């Protein structure tokens, strides 16, 4: 049981390039999330998904796209990379939203992205 | 608009003493609060949580206190250990309507000295 895995660990992109950050979970979780963390800041939600085929925007979705074709995978696509997208990206998953308690979100180790 | 704030960027404590980390929130719709711990080059890991219907929750050395009228919560670690040195994030959610989405504070770097 690997939990949440993310690839790559680190990547340098040139301005205008595109890339896909991969995220996979093996816990059969329904909900998945993408966050970014800028230096000295908390995590901000980019996109989330409540199941295969269902995605929605979070707080900072501009410049990103997602898809969820399977329960396990939730890739994040950067189109036309910009220096403002330099950040650490975390993927997370949880079983589902509880009505009386917050299901624990399990985080991947992160992808560090540098856009030059 | 920072809905969850941790106003202390860092905290330094001696081993064996108490660590108190603070968090304030502005959105009265939040009804569940969590603390996450993060080591360098790793993802955050869940530490402890509290529902808005409670004012205290305890788990071993960790206790979270919630003051709803002040929109304030705090994490107490007693006794502090060097292995507790990490970044601590406060997070909040709206249980029923938010699909588990979390709003995070900026984090507090805790350093516990031997």
Blueprint of the fold:
The complex is a heterodimer of chains A (116) and B (114).
Chain A: E1 4-7, E2 10-13, E3 19-25, E4 31-37, E5 43-51, E6 54-57, E7 64-66, E8 76-78, E9 87-94, E10 106-107, E11 111-115
Parallel strand pairs in A: 2-11
Antiparallel strand pairs in A: 1-3, 3-8, 4-5, 4-9, 5-6, 7-8, 9-10, 9-11
Chain B: E1 4-5, E2 10-14, E3 19-25, E4 32-38, E5 45-51, E6 56-59, E7 62-67, E8 72-77, E9 86-93, E10 103-104, E11 108-113
Describe it for me?
The complex is a heterodimer of chains A (116) and B (114). With 116 residues, chain A is mostly beta strands. Chain A has a single domain, classed as Immunoglobulin-like (Sandwich), CATH 2.60.40.10. Helix content of chain A is 0%, strand content 48%. Chain A contains no helices and eleven strands. In chain A, strands 2, 4, 5, 6, 9, 10 and 11 form a seven-stranded mixed beta sheet that branches. A four-stranded antiparallel beta sheet of chain A has the order 1-3-8-7, with no helix packed on it. Chain A is globular, with a radius of gyration of 14 Å. The model of chain A has no long low-confidence stretch (mean pLDDT 92). By secondary structure, chain B is mostly beta strands. Chain B has a single domain, classed as Sandwich (Immunoglobulin-like). Chains A and B meet through strand 4, strand 5, strand 9 and strand 10 of A and strand 5 and strand 10 of B.
């Amino acid at each position: 049981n690997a939990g949440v895995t993310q690839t790559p660990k680190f990547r340098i992109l040139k301005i205008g390039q595109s890339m896909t950050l991969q995220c996979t979970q093996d816990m059969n979780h329904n909900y998945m999330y993408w966050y970014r963390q800028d230096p000295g800041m908390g995590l901000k939600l980019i996109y989330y998904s409540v199941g295969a085929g269902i995605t929605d925007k979070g707080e900072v979705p501009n410049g990103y796209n997602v898809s969820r074709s399977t329960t396990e995978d939730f890739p994040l696509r950067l189109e036309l990379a910009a220096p403002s997208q330099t950040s650490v990206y975390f993927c997370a998953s949880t079983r589902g939203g509880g009505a009386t308690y917050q299901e624990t979100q399990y985080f991947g180790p992160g992808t560090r992205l540098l856009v030059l | 608009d920072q809905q969850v704030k941790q106003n202390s960027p860092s905290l330094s404590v001696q081993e064996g003493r108490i660590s108190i980390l603070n968090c304030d929130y502005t959105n009265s719709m939040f009804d569940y609060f969590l603390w996450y711990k993060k080591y360098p080059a790793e993802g955050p890991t869940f530490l402890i949580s509290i529902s808005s219907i409670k004012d205290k929750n305890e788990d071993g050395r960790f206790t979270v206190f919630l003051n709803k009228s002040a929109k304030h919560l705090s994490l107490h670690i007693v006794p502090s250990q060097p292995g507790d040195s990490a970044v601590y994030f406060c997070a909040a959610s709206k249980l029923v309507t938010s699909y588990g989405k979390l709003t995070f504070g900026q984090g507090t770097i805790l350093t516990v000295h031997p």
